Structure formats: structure tokens, C-alpha cells
TrEMBL record:
Keyword list, A-Z: Signal
Biased composition range(s): Low complexity: 32-45, 65-81, 94-107
Region annotation Disordered: where it falls in the sequence: 32-107
Claim: ATP-binding is one of the keywords in the record: no
Signal peptide: 1-29
Protein name as catalogued: Carbohydrate-binding protein
Superkingdom of origin: Bacteria
Length: 339
């Protein structure tokens, strides 16, 4: 993923600016009523109440998730200047394949130059037409101006056929949940919902003590290859649309997708590790209840329909940080990264 951008702040990192694409493909329905502002009983923005996870067949509303979209998002984000973007299906970096020089001694981190790009997560090995997942959020993360890093965690793509990647991102411009449109002429973020008190009270519940949103990214028309990404609205018990896009050319891409922890980081000589490490100590990232749809059947990710990349144990220093740990709570439908 390339870097996100905030509509409320000026551009501060000219080397890596957000690419924001116009809405492409099928248009979303305009909301006919405002979103409810009521919260589940006992819920607060910082402490949502845990409720049962929705199913892919839970009701779909005619509402849109409140987000920055289209021309307004493009104007707020600035020009397309993102480098190193990899399309679905192209090789992704792993914790062992970066070009940055690092010592074999896991107790030290050798300085590197440029951006270190590393990932870890679950990768479906079958081509699906939908995915659902529970994604935790960390609203307390505050990455200061001048920090060039970005953390995408979790970030979800069902398969090569999809037009939409849904990602939770943290960087100096703010924390958000975004829909990245891979079917646009110039791929980029087409919708960004900021993780504020309204988002937390409407779209999150509690998962293992953390606020978490439910995402559904599904093909809605097999002929036009139209996809819609939804977030579950816990105040109305319905799926609200975040973004829709379509492209028949993607139907030929039969590879699987990903659910992963992804980092772009640069070396901070003052701390001896990546810039993002200081601001993310004490955090957890979860992607849980991972399901994919093949044909008409929804199935959890398992060792038979997905792989974990890279396999085996990881060194925290591969991610430019001290103290990261990587856990599969359930293989392969629930991964956790703890810092």
C-alpha cells in the first residue's frame, strides 16, 4: 500500500504523498436518512460493548459510511506521488526479503537508508469472491508531524479479482479506515473514514478488550465484477457501504489475496530503530474471524486454504523495531501483532 493523507493537515512529507483516486465503477446509493447517533447500551467511544459478530448475510442498509470521497478527497490529499506500489498478484516483500541491510544478531538493528517495507500475515491460496474480518483499531496512536512512517494494520484484499483493499492506517496525517481502489485509472484511496469518536461509537465493538470494526468486501455482480466494501453499523445492525468499484478485466486474476500487518518505516538514528516504533509501543493489532467466499460458500481461513507469510518464527528486528511479537491465535483465521 502507498501512504495515506489527511484532509485536515498540510502535506509534510513531499517524498511520499497520498494517492487518492476518484470514485470508479458502480456508484453507491446516496443515503436517504442520517446515520443514527445512538450507541449500544453501555458503550462509549473508548470502551465499546462486545456484541456478536455479524454474518455476511446480515442486512445491508442504504447508508454510506461517513467518509471523505471523490473530488473532495483528491483535493484534500494532493497529487499522486506514491512510489513502490504493488498491484494485487505481484510479489510482496516479506520480513526476510527487504533490501535494507540488517545484522544477523537479533539484539541489534543495523541502520538502513530509504524505506524499509515489510509485511506479515495470512494469504489465501484460492481465488475468492468475498472476505470478512474483524479488525482492531488503536485510536490512541499519535504519530507526530515529521515522522515519515506508516503502519497498515490490518489491511485486507479478498483475491486478485477484487477492486477494493480495505485498510486501517496510522501515520502523521491521522488514523483512518480507507478503501483503496485498484480498479481506478490511477489507483488510490477513494474513501477514507477517520477513526474519531463518531466512528468508534457507530462502527466498533469490543474485541479482546480493544475497539474493533467488522469489514465485508464482496463481489456484488459477477458479470460486471462489481465489488462493495461494507462496515458493520452497530447502532442499526446493518452493513453500511464504504465504497463500490467494478472492472471486468480483473476477472482474469485468479490468485488469492491477503490479510496482513504492513509497515513502511525509515531509520531513526536517535532511537536506533524505525520511526514508528516509539509511537506504537504497547499496542496490539488483530485480524480475526477471517473468512473468504468461494462460490456460494463462506469458509474460515485455515492451513488448507491459506498460508502464513513468512512462515515460522520472525525477528522483531526484521521490522525495524525492538519488541514486536507475531502470534497466530487460530491458524490461519486470527493473527495478532503485539508491540
Amino acid at each position: 500500500m502507498p501512504l495515506p493523507s489527511s484532509p485536515s493537515r498540510p502535506r509534510r512529507s513531499p517524498a511520499r504523498l497520498l494517492a487518492v483516486a476518484l470514485l470508479a465503477g458502480g456508484a453507491l446509493l446516496a443515503p436517504t436518512a442520517p446515520l443514527s447517533t445512538a450507541s449500544p447500551a453501555g458503550a462509549t467511544p473508548d470502551k465499546p460493548v462486545e456484541v456478536a459478530a455479524p454474518t455476511p448475510d446480515s442486512p445491508v442498509s442504504n447508508r454510506l459510511v461517513p467518509a471523505v470521497r471523490g473530488e473532495a478527497a483528491r483535493a484534500a490529499a494532493g497529487p499522486v506521488v506514491s512510489e513502490g506500489v504493488r498491484k494485487p498478484g505481484e510479489s510482496r516483500p516479506t520480513a526476510g526479503s527487504t533490501t535494507a541491510a540488517r545484522s544477523a544478531d537479533t539484539t541489534t538493528i543495523t541502520p538502513w537508508s530509504g524505506s524499509l517495507h515489510v509485511v506479515w500475515g495470512a494469504f489465501p491460496t484460492v481465488s475468492s469472491i468475498g472476505a470478512q474480518a474483524t479488525h482492531t483499531v488503536n485510536p490512541g496512536i499519535s504519530i507526530p508531524s515529521g515522522n515519515p512512517d506508516v503502519v497498515y494494520a490490518p489491511t485486507l484484499v479478498p483475491s486478485g479479482k477484487t477492486c477494493i483493499e480495505v485498510t486501517t492506517f496510522y501515520w502523521q496525517g491521522g488514523n483512518g479506515v480507507g478503501a483503496w481502489d485498484w480498479c481506478a485509472a490511477s489507483p488510490g484511496f477513494a474513501a477514507v473514514a477517520w477513526i474519531d469518536s463518531s466512528f468508534l461509537s457507530t462502527y466498533t465493538t469490543s474485541f479482546q478488550g480493544l475497539p474493533a470494526y467488522e469489514v465485508l468486501d464482496v463481489q456484488t455482480n459477477a458479470v460486471t465484477n462489481s465489488w462493495t466494501a461494507y462496515l458493520y453499523n452497530y447502532t442499526t445492525s446493518t452493513w453500511d457501504a464504504l465504497f463500490t468499484s467494478a472492472d471486468t478485466a480483473k476477472l482474469s486474476e485468479t490468485h488469492g489475496g491477503w490479510s496482513m500487518f504492513e509497515v513502511y518505516t525509515e531509520y531513526n538514528s536517535a532511537t536506533g530503530e524505525g520511526y514508528y516504533c516509539t509511537e506504537t509501543y504497547g499496542t496490539q493489532y488483530h485480524a480475526a474471524n477471517l473468512k473468504i467466499k468461494v462460490g456460494s460458500t463462506w469458509s474460515s481461513l485455515t492451513t488448507s486454504n491459506s498460508t502464513v507469510t513468512p512462515p515460522g518464527s520472525l525477528n522483531s528486528t526484521d521490522f525495524g523495531c525492538y519488541g514486536l511479537s507475531f502470534t497466530l491465535q487460530t491458524a490461519n483465521s486470527h493473527w495478532q501483532v503485539t508491540h
